[in-house]
Amino acid sequence: MGKGRRQSPFLPALYKGGKTLATIAVTMLGLLFVTFFIGRVMPVDPVLSIVGERATKEIYDAAFLELGLDKPLIVQFYYYLRDVVQGDFGTSLRTGFPVSGDLIRVFPATMELATLGTLIGVILGVPLGVLAAVKRGTWIDQLARVIALIGYSMPIFWLGLIGLLVLYGILGWVGGPGRLDIYYEDIVPTVTGMILIDSALDGNWDIFQNAISHIILPASLLGYYSLAYISRMTRSFMLEQMSAEYVITARVKGLSEREVIWNHVFSNIKVQLITVIALSYAGLLEGSVLTEIIFAWPGIGSYITTSLLSADMNAVMGGTVVVGLVFVCLNIFSDLLYKFFDPRAQ
Amino acid sequence: MISMRSMTIGAAAVLAVGAIGVPAIAQTPSNMLIIAGQIDDITTLDPAQSFEFSGSDVSRNIYGKLVNFDPSNLDAGYGPDLAESWTVSDDGKTITFKMREGVKFHSGNPVTAKDAEFSLRRAVTLNKTPSFIFTQFGFSADNVEQTIVATGPMTLQITTDRRYALSFVLNCLTSTIGGIVDSKLVMANEVDGDLGNTWLRNNTAGSGAYKLGSWKANESITLISNPDFYLGAPAMERVVVRHIGESATQRLLLEKGDIDVARNLNPEDVAGVSGKAGIRVDSELRGRLMYIAFNQKNEILANPKVVEAMKYLIDYEGMKNSFLKGQYTIHQAFLPRTYLGAISDTPYSLNVQKAKTLLAEAGYPDGFEVGIIVREAQERLEIGQSLQNTFGKAGIKVNITVGTAKQMLAVYRARQHDIYLGAWGPDYPDPNTNAATFAVNQDNRDEAGLTGQLAWRNSWDIPKISEDTLAAVVENDRDVRAKMYESIQREHQKVSPFAIMFQKIEQTGRQNNIKNLNLGGAITAVSYWVVTK
Q1: Domain locations in chain B?
Q2: What pLDDT shows up at residue B207?
Q3: Which residue of A74, A163, B36, B166 pairs with B250 in a disulfide if CB–CB is 3.0 to 4.6 A?
C-alpha cells in the first residue's frame, strides 16, 4: 500500500479561517440588505432633510437625482455595496462629513464608556452572583436579588438624571455632562479618540482626572445594568454546577468550601460567563442612546438614532456595519476564549 | 486563579475611582462664552447653502455682509457693514455699493468689491436652497456676469430685473446667504468646479468678528475671536457652543456655573432656574408663527362666516397660559412683531357664543365634521387637542390626523387637507418673506403648483390682495411701505383662511454677569462680538 498524501497542518486552519470570513461576509451582507431596504421604506424624506421644506421643486429634483434616488432600489443597493467594499460609506447628509470620519469620531467615545461600564459590571457583578449562589436563601441572596431587580427595572434616563442632580448638581463629586469640562476641549491631541488614553499618552493628568470625573457616572450607570444581568446569570450558573455530583465528590474528599467554590465550581462556569459578558459588552458597544443623550455623550448610539430620524441612511448604514462588526468580532473573541479556558472546545 | 479577595479589592477600587471628586468651578473663564444649545441642525457652514437656525448663528459671527443689523439697535434696521455706503440709480434698478477700506479676511487677504461680486454670483450660481432670496430679484446663473459687477476695486454694482423697494433688496442682503467670502481662499479649495462648496461646508473664509476654531457635528462648535475685526477685537476670545439636547441637563450645567447660557430650557426648567441667585431668564421674540389654515376647496370652510367662527373658537389665552407658557405669545398677524409693518392687533379671542351665532348664520347651527392634520410634535399635538376641545363646544367635530413631516407636508402641498396646523418662520428679514406666502396667490389652479405659497396651498384665490402685496414690494418710502403692510394684514386678519395664533418667544437662562447677548430677535441671528462679562 502506497503512502497516502500527507495533509498540510495548515489546511484545517485555512478552512476554518475561510469559513469564518465567509460567515462574516454573509452576515454583513444580510445586515446591510435589511437595513438598506428598511431605510428606504421609512416615512422620512432624505431629500427634504437636505434641502429643507421651503426648497423649490427644481432644487428638490436636483438633490433627488444627486442622491441617485431615481434609480431602482436594487441598483441603489448595488452602488452602495460597491462603495462600502472600497471603504467608502458616503457622506452623512446631516453632518456633511464622510461617514467613516464621523464613525471614527463617535465610536471611541462609546467604546470608552462601554468598556469601563463592562469592567464595573464584571468586577462587581461576578462576585455578587457567586456570593448570592453560595449564600442561597440568606439575606445576602435577597439583597443581590433586589439590587439586580432595581437594575433591571429602573429607567436609565431617570437614574441618569437623578445621578447627575445629586452627584454633580448637589454634591459636586463628579463632572457634568460631556466628556470633559468645556474649557478642556481640543487641548489633548486625538490619537485613539478615547480621552482617558489620549490624555494619559499626552501626560496631561489634569485632563485625565477631569475625564475620569465625567465618565464615572455614566459608566457606573451602564455598569449597574451590566451588573444586574451578570450577577443573576452568575448565580444561576453557579447553582446549576453546585448541585452536580463532582461537587459532592470534592466535598467528600475533604476539600475546603473555598476550594470547592473557586477551583471547581467557578472554573466550570467560566465559558458560560464569557458568553454573558461578551453579550453585555456588545450591547453597550451598540451605544446606549438614552445615556448618551442625558450625558451629552457623543457616541454611536445617539449618532445612529439622530441619523435615522433625519433619514440620513448613509450614516445609519455605516453605524450598522460597525455595530454588526462589533458583534461578529466579539463572537470570534469569545470562541477563542472558550478554547483557552476549556480544552474540550479545541 | 481569581480569588474572592482579589475580586473584592477590585470592586473597592472601582468605588474608590467613583469617589474621585472634582471641585465645581463656579464661573467660566472671563474671556470665554460657553453656551449649551441644540446645534444638531447644522448641515453646512457655507453661507450660500446654510439655511438652519444654528448655521445662521455661526455665520453671522464669521461673515461680514454688505449691509447688516447692529445688535445693539436692531430696531434701526439694516446699516453699513462691509459696504460703507450705497446709491440707487434713477430707475431704481441699480444699487452701487462703496466698500469699506482696510477690512481684511481672517486669511489676511483684503476685502474688495471682487470678493463681494464673487460671493453674490456664487450664491446665485450654486443654486442651493436659500438662493431664492437673491434670484427673486431676477439674478440667474446666466446673467450674474452682467447684473452683479465689481466696477472698481472697491465698488460693486447690482442690477435687479425691475424696480424694488431698496429696503427689500438690502434686507435680503443681510441674510446668511449675503455673507462675503474670501474669493482667493475659496477658489484655492475648489474641487470639480464646485466653487468651494465642499470645502466651505466645514471650513470658513470670512472677515467677521470670529473665525472657526472647530466644528464637531452634533457635538460642539468653537469660535476664536478675530483680533483684527474692523469694529474692534471681541471681548470674548473664545465662544464654545456645546450640543446638549436635554433641557434638564442644560439647566444643571447652568446652575453649576459650567455654562454661561442655556438656550433650550423648557417651561419647567425656566420656572426652576427663575429666581436662582446669579441666574436670570431673558425672553426674546423670534420669528416663528404658529397658525392653522382652512383649505378653501372644502365647501364648508370656504364659507367666510365659518372661518370667522372658528377664529373665535380658539382658546388663545388658555394655551398661552398653560402648555405654551413662556414659549409663545399671542400674535394674530402674518408679520412677526419687530418686522417692518408688523401690527399687534389681536381681534380674536375665545367667544363660543359669537362663534355659534356665526355658524348659525352660515347655515351650520349644529356644527359639522372636519379634519385637522398635524405633524408629530409635542406642542402642535397639544394645540390640536385644545382646538378639538373648543371647536367641539360649537358642535364642530374634529378628527386629528397625526403624521410625519413628510406625510403632512405632502398632503398640504397637494391641497388635500381640511385644516392644517403648522408653523412658519421667515426666510429673510423683510416683510415680503411672509407677505409673499400668506398673501400672494397669482394662479389658483392646481396645475400652477405654487407650493411655496401658503395662500395657494389653501386654494385661496386672491387677485386683489396679491396685487396689493406685490405693490408693497416696490414702494421705496419705508414708512409708506410699512403702512401698506399694516393695511394688508388688517384685511388679511378679517378675510383670510388663516388663523395666526402665536409668535415664538425664546427664553434663555443666563449667568448674571453676561451682558449684551442679543439673540437677533425675529429678524436675524445671535451676535457674540458685543458680549461682555
Answers
A1: 32-237, 287-505
A2: 97
A3: B36
Q: Is any Cβ of chain B less than 8 angstroms from the Cβ of A186?
A: yes
User: How many residue contacts between A and B have a Cβ separation below 8 Å?
Assistant: 163
Closest residue in chain A to residue B260, using alpha carbons only:
A182
- CB-based contact, A130 to chain B, within 8 Å: yes
| Statement: residue A288 has pLDDT above 80 | no
Confidence of residue A343 (pLDDT cuts 50, 70, 90): low
Q: Which of residues 228-287 of A touch B (CB under 8 A)?
A: 258, 262-263, 266
In this structure, whether the domain defined by B32-237 belongs to CATH 3.90.1570.10 is answered with no
The answer for residues whose C-beta is within 8 angstroms of residue B45's C-beta and 6 or more apart is: B55, B58, B59, B62, B200, B201, B202, B203, B204, B212, B215
- Mean local confidence (pLDDT), A279-287: 82
As a whole number of Å, the end-to-end CA separation of chain A is: 33
B52: which chain A residues are within 8 Å (Cβ-Cβ)?
A: 52
CB A272 within 8 A of CB A307: no
Give, for B253, the enclosing helix (H) or strand (E): helix B247-256
Cell numbers standing for residue B519: 439673540
Of the partner residues B21, B40, B44, the one whose CB lies closest to the CB of residue A173: B21
Best of B222, B258, B424 to disrupt the A interface (most A CBs within 10 Å) is B258
pTM: 0.80
Model ipTM?
Answer: 0.71
Class of domain B287-505: alpha beta
Do B287-505 and B32-237 fall under one CATH topology? no
Is B338 or B233 the better-scoring residue by pLDDT?
B233
pLDDT for position B141? 95
| Architecture field, domain A103-309 | Orthogonal Bundle (1.10)
Nearest chain A Cα to B29, which residue? Answer: A183
- Closest chain B residue to A166, measured at CA: B252
Mean pLDDT of chain A: 84
Interatomic CA distance for residues B308 and B289, integer angstroms:
19
Subunit contact B252:A298, Cβ cutoff 8 A: no
